[in-house]
Amino acid sequence: MKTGLTILQLSFCLSLIVVVSLSMGMRPETCDHYECPTYEMAEAGNGYEIRVYKSAVWMSTGPIPAPSMTEASKTGFQRLFRYIQGDNKSKTKMNMTAPVITQTTQGKSVYTVSFYLPKKNQQNPPLADDLHVQSWKPTYVAMRQFSGYVTDAIAKKEAAALMDSLKNTKWIVHIEQSKGKSPEYLVAGYSPPFQTTARVNEILVPFTM
Ligand SMILES: *[C@@H]1O[C@H](CO)[C@@H](O)[C@H](O)[C@H]1NC(C)=O
Ligand SMILES: CC(=O)N[C@H]1CO[C@H](CO)[C@@H](O)[C@@H]1O
């Protein structure tokens, strides 16, 4: 009887913890160890989260032709990894950050992979012949998080689920209006390739209000 009560109390406490951590949003744990772009959470919805990202500077590959998004991500990541190890015009070494973002060009098998520049390198990004700087203005983003290794099919399915969860919300009209101006969706990877468990990925749909 006494044990029963204790377990009941314990599960009550645990459910409180779950509620509290949900209301703090879904900030990936990777961002405790690596620098990540900063944002404010506007809403934690059912199956989605709305974030307002601050302006940020990214270093991007040129368009990578590849048979799949996952192939392009690998190729892009390898180039950007050499870049932060000093393969750039000023031989500057940079710390790893998160996430690495893969951008799809609608209807084409061509992808752009981007690395979030550490704050201290954003003012004066080390240059490289085959990479270019992308400055992102502050933007709203609809986000859905998922685990595991990303495949093209999984990314497509998660993006559809995100759009589904946004139906009948106040955001959808703004997202629809932003179509064409922003890419369909971005895939953000937070976990290094060798990490096999608790991997974190996000589908991001940028939009303007
Ligand atoms: C990497 O991060 C550490 C800890 O924040 C910092 O001390 C170090 O200077 C950084 N290294 C580079 C190359 O920016
Ligand atoms: C692509 C590119 O610009 N690479 C350069 C990066 O920096 C190294 C070291 O200075 C150069 O050798 C590369 O050509």
Describe the structure.
- With 209 residues, the chain is α+β, with helices and mostly antiparallel strands.
- It has a single domain (2-207), classed as Alpha-Beta Barrel (Multidrug-efflux Transporter 1 Regulator Bmrr, Chain A).
- It has helices spanning 2-23, 69-84, 119-122, 152-166, 172-178, and strands spanning 39-44, 49-53, 56-61, 64-65, 100-104, 110-116, 131-136, 139-146, 186-189, 201-207.
- Strands 1, 2, 3, 4, 5, 6, 7, 8, 9 and 10 form a 10-stranded antiparallel beta sheet that branches.
- The longest helix is centred in the first third of the chain and has 22 residues, at 2-23.
- The radius of gyration is 19 Å and the shape is globular.
- The termini are far apart.
- The relative contact order is 0.18.
- Residues 93-95 line the site of one 2-acetamido-2-deoxy-beta-D-glucopyranose (NAG).
- Residues 87-89, 91, 128-130 line the site of one 2-acetamido-2-deoxy-beta-D-glucopyranose.
> What letter string, H or E per element, gives the SSE order?
HEEEEHEEHEEHHEE
Distance between the termini: 56 Å
Query: What is the name of the CATH architecture?
Result: Alpha-Beta Barrel
Share of helical residues: 25-40%
Bound molecules: 2-acetamido-2-deoxy-beta-D-glucopyranose
CATH class category label = Alpha Beta
Low-confidence stretches: 16-23
CATH topology: Multidrug-efflux Transporter 1 Regulator Bmrr, Chain A
Structural class: alpha+beta
List key phrases describing it.
alpha+beta, Multidrug-efflux Transporter 1 Regulator Bmrr, Chain A, binds 2-acetamido-2-deoxy-beta-D-glucopyranose, 5 helices, 10-stranded antiparallel beta sheet, 209 residues
